[in-house]
Amino acid sequence: MLLRLIVLLIFMSPVVLATLWFSDNAGTVQVEWLGWHVDTNIPVLLGILLAVFMLFSGLTRLSALVADLPAKLGKSRQARGREKGMLALLAALDAAESGDVGDGRRLGAEAARLLDSPELAARLDRLIPRPAAPPAATLRPEPAKGRLFAKKPPAPPVVEREPPPPVKAAPPPAPVAVVETPGAPADPSAEDAAAFAAKLRDGEWAAAQACIDATLSAGRLSPALAARWRAVVLQGQACLDSQDDPARSLRLAREALAADPGFLPAALHVLRQEVSEGRRSEAEAVLAAVWRSAPARILLETCAPLWREDDAESRLKRLEALAEWAPHDPEGHLAAGEAAVAAAKWGVARRHLMAALKIAPDALGCRLMAEIEDKEPGGAERAEIWRRREREAAAAPTWVCEACGATSGSWAPYCSACGAGAAIQWTRPAHKPENPPTPASVPPSAEAPPAPAEPRVSRIQAESKIEKL
User: pLDDT per residue over 168-199, tens digit each?
Assistant: First the structure.
């Protein structure tokens, strides 16, 4: 304390001495400006200058503080969000460790939302298992009550209405079949495929499961194809029960997805249910798990209502993450390119669209490239080239029968045209529609390929090289 007082006296002594000296030698100062005449002395003039300097310094600091206020508030809000997300993540891990799976999944979804990380949601979905589904007898109980219900054992009639025991006992024979018959054929015989398809057409789901078990045990069916057939049987039942018993339908779809994680119809069934009930975190977790093995544009169209309120930047960020998870598939790059066009990120859109078109030509990619070229000066000729390539590109993916090539508007366990079972896949049809749409501005004669085709090809190659540079 004494040291501070001494330092203060040392600094104040020159000020006091200067004040005393100016009081004895005040002098006079005359200021004449624009007809004004001011008479004052040196101490007053110095005091006025000091006050003006302090006022200017205070205004400068205040303006800098006001300019930095939004950035500081934004950083503070982000820090609070991250802190809440980490606390929710720790609470989710503690709940999962203590066995409370329901709270663990709920807190994990909240942590993924606060931290804005779909990948975290997918990992937590794998780490924290779903709560065990109630047994079939509890889902569809008998109306009996009281002592009559207590006397009865677990009701056999209810179990008979559920998928028969072969559905639950199906996984154990699979490893046995691999050990005993390591050389199982990749494709089943025509007789086995026809028998399985007949069971599907007749709606004999238990018999279809038994057919799978018998064919797999005999070594005439590979484990991977057996898993796909089981998923087809479960999803077929789920489609039939979707109106009468939605809970059982959703459970069967989840079982089908567990049997074959890349089975697109089951994934779409689960996603539609999650989206309709507004469970965003669960839907994004299912999408992240399925996208790595079966990326398809229809998955994004199903999840689109969840992201309707997001801005263009957020959608682009999410779709770019999906493109990184499946970099060798064009669907993720096409979706990211379309989102980049919507966000007016032309460089990002061009990069993703060119990556998709190098993997597989697509009409959507060509149309988006034409839109980008239209935005640039002098790009009308290049845009017309891309529109021509759009008309020549393959048709968009749809449900196609691998046996006969027939297309369908929705998935079914068997083809309605040829009757083949487990043959409908989401892919591009072999042929484009008979009457593809053409722009009204292009005359019919322009549809014929021009005679000097070689310069057009070299122009496209030159443009690709320019894009790489």
Answer: 333 433 333 333 344 556 578 888 889 899 98
Residue 343 to residue 312: CA distance in whole angstroms = 5
Structure tokens at 119: 């990948």
Q: Is residue 439, in this structure, part of any structural domain at all?
A: no
Name the burial class of residue 356, with classes exposed (0-12), middle (13-18) and buried (19+) by CB atoms within 10 angstroms of its CB: buried
Q: Is the pTM of the predicted complex or chain greater than 0.90?
A: no
Which DSSP string corresponds to 302-337?
HHGGGGTTS-HHHHHHHHHHHHHHSTTSHHHHHHHH
Q: Averaging pLDDT over each range in 40-44, 338-342, 433-437, 449-453, which range is the top one?
A: 338-342
- Quick check: is 232 in a domain? no
For residue 3, give both structure tokens.
């040291």
Q: Within a domain: residue 85?
A: yes
The more confident residue out of 47 and 458 is: 47
How many distinct structural domains can be found in the chain?
A: 1
Query: Residues 313-364: pLDDT tens digits?
Result: 888 888 888 888 888 888 888 888 888 998 888 888 888 888 888 888 888 8
CA-CA distance, 223 to 241, in Å (whole number)?
27
Cβ-proximal residues to 333 (8 Å cutoff; 6+ apart), any chain = 323, 352, 353, 355, 356, 359
Q: Are 362 and 393 in contact (CB under 8 A)?
A: yes
* Structural domain range at position 17: 2-127
Mean pLDDT for 277-306 is: 88
- DSSP letter for 186, please: S
CA 291 to chain centre: 9
Report the interhelical angle of 312-325 vs 330-342 (nearest 10°).
170
Cα separation, 406 vs 420, in Å, equals 11
What are 416's two structure tokens?
A: 């309605």
Rg, C-alpha atoms of the chain:
36
| Cα 232 from chain centroid (whole Å) | 25
| Interatomic CA distance for residues 251 and 440, integer angstroms | 49
Output the pLDDT for position 399. 92
pLDDT at 152 over 50: no
- Please name the residues in contact with 412: beta carbons below 8 A apart, sequence gap of 6 or more: 236, 239, 424
CA distance 349 to 353: 6
Mean pLDDT (the chain, rounded): 76
Residue 300 lies in a domain: no
Q: Is the pLDDT of residue 441 over 80?
A: no
